[in-house]
Design goal:
344 residues; 80% helix; mainly alpha; single chain
């Protein structure tokens, strides 16, 4: 047997068993590596004031845990407490609101369809669905917390050994060490990370204010709205519509209107459309020295695709996979152009 084929077969055999052995850790490892890439500029910024790798890696890990994972743990804990003291009569009162709704006459052509939809809303089915999803959350929360812990551990080591790993990859990959390939991926991950963080914190804080005004747990609803805001178009509505309906169910019509109008005008229009892009643009100029050449619309759709395919972690994985693909296509085109020049 040809020695090259034998070595190739042996290599593939070993790769399979390595993949099988570390299979439970691949996802946390990938997420941690991408998060380390996304915060690489922050790593450099902290490095100006802290020259030692160990304290710098600890600071970054603590920041990620406090900003990204602590709110999730708080939300999971609060939701489990709510589930333990769940009162189905609240759902009955909220569904009963439909009896007092009058469909406007200008919706005449679709008025029957709207009425059929309202008639089909059943409090028992809604309660059953809520309990089902809350049970799923409770079952998966332990695994989710375990994954978060593993991500933090891998994130620490990714920052601690990051420079050495990047230099090693640059050495074994067939790219120029000054290639824009690495810079492009880093830039996109920076944009996605800071955009996600700003959206969640800024819009979540705004919704927490109105939630506190009407006696709800502001921290919990702020966190939930922050994560819901990552879902394009309908994300915020998943939070403010139930609260508005709840206000209607307890007879506070004015409160329902204020929550709805505040969420649409202040958060969706002013904050999301005007203020958030300005903040993100400022942060990108502050943290990213070389602008990304990938269209923002591509990044937007990659986030949607990631959420659809991978769930919550798709916010990180979607743009990363898309960026890798686009970068490899560019590299392939360069190689083809070089071959054409050699043929001439």
């Amino acid at each position: 047997m040809n020695r090259q084929y034998f070595l190739l077969a042996l290599f593939l055999f070993v790769v399979y068993w390595v993949w099988y052995l570390y299979q439970p850790f691949w996802m946390p490892l990938a997420i941690a590596s991408l998060l380390a890439l996304a915060t690489s500029n922050l790593n450099i910024l902290i490095g100006k004031y802290c020259k030692y790798k160990l304290p710098k890696s600890i600071i970054l890990t603590l920041l990620l845990g406090l900003l990204f994972f602590a709110p999730i743990i708080y939300a999971l804990n609060s939701l489990s407490t709510i589930m333990q003291h769940f009162d189905a009569t609240i759902i009955d009162k909220m569904v009963d609101v439909k009896r007092h709704l009058e469909i406007p006459d200008f919706l005449g052509p679709i008025k029957p369809q709207i009425q059929d939809f309202l008639n089909g809303i059943n409090s028992k089915e809604i309660t059953k669905g809520i309990l089902k999803y809350m049970t799923i959350i409770a079952k998966n929360s332990a695994g989710f917390v375990k994954d978060m812990f593993m991500i933090l551990v891998f994130y620490f080591f990714a920052n601690f050994y990051g420079k050495e790993l990047v230099m090693y990859l640059k050495g074994i990959l067939p790219f120029d060490k000054n290639s824009a390939f690495f810079q492009e991926i880093s830039n996109v991950m920076n944009i996605v990370f800071y955009s996600t963080l700003v959206t969640a914190i800024f819009e979540g804080a705004l919704f927490a204010i109105i939630a506190i005004v009407y006696g709800y747990d502001g921290l919990l609803f702020g966190i939930l709205y922050g994560f819901a805001s990552l879902i394009p178009v309908i994300g915020g509505a998943l939070m403010w519509i139930p609260l508005s309906i709840h206000q209607l169910s307890i007879g506070n019509i004015l409160g329902a209107w204020i929550i709805g109008l505040y969420s649409i005008i202040i958060i969706s229009i002013v904050a999301d459309t005007i203020i958030k892009p300005a903040i993100i643009n400022w942060m990108n100029h502050l943290m990213i020295k070389i602008p990304s050449k990938i269209n923002p619309i591509v990044i937007f759709f990659s986030i949607i695709a990631g959420l659809t395919s991978f769930g919550f972690w798709g916010v990180i994985l979607g743009p990363a996979i898309t960026t890798f693909f686009i970068s490899f296509v560019k590299i392939y085109k360069v190689l083809l152009d070089e071959e054409k020049l050699l043929e001439r």
